[in-house]
C-alpha cells in the first residue's frame, strides 16, 4: 500500500498514524526482517526504515549506535532495500537516510526499487 493511501484511509477513519522506526540490519539482518514484517501485525501503520550511515551526526545516540552495529554487519543502502523486499511488509515504508547514500546509489535505481 502506498503511503498516501494509508494516510487517507487513516484520516477517513479518524485515526492518526502509528509510525515505527527500525534501523535496517539492527540488531542483525534476520531480526530486522522479522521486525519489518511483524510490526504492522502489531498495529504499526507506517514503517520508517533507517539506512545505516557511517557518519550519522544529526541523529541521536540510539540511532547512531544501531547504525554502527548494522554497518559492522555489512548493511548499506543496497542491503537495506533487500531486507525490506525480503520482509514483504504490508505497511508503507519510508526510507530514513542521509542524502549521500541515495546519491551514490542513484535516484533512478532508487525509483526502480520503490
Search tags:
114 residues; alpha/beta; 3-stranded parallel beta sheet; 50% helix
Please summarize what this structure is:
50% of the residues lie in helices and 12% in strands. It has 114 residues and is α/β, with parallel strands linked by helices.
Name the beta content range.
Answer: 5-15%
- How many helical elements? 6
- As residue ranges, the low-confidence spans are none
Mean pLDDT: 93
Characterise this structure.
- Helices cover 50% and strands 12% of the residues.
- With 114 residues, it is α/β, with parallel strands linked by helices.
- Strands 1-2-3 form a 3-stranded parallel beta sheet.
- Helix 2 crosses helix 4 (77-87).
- The chain starts with a helix and ends with a helix.
Question: What secondary-structure arrangement, pairings included, does this model have?
Answer:
Layout: H1 3-12, E1 19-23, H2 29-38, E2 46-50, H3 61-72, H4 77-87, E3 93-96, H5 99-105, H6 107-113
Parallel strand pairs: 1-2, 2-3
Helix pairs in contact: 2-4
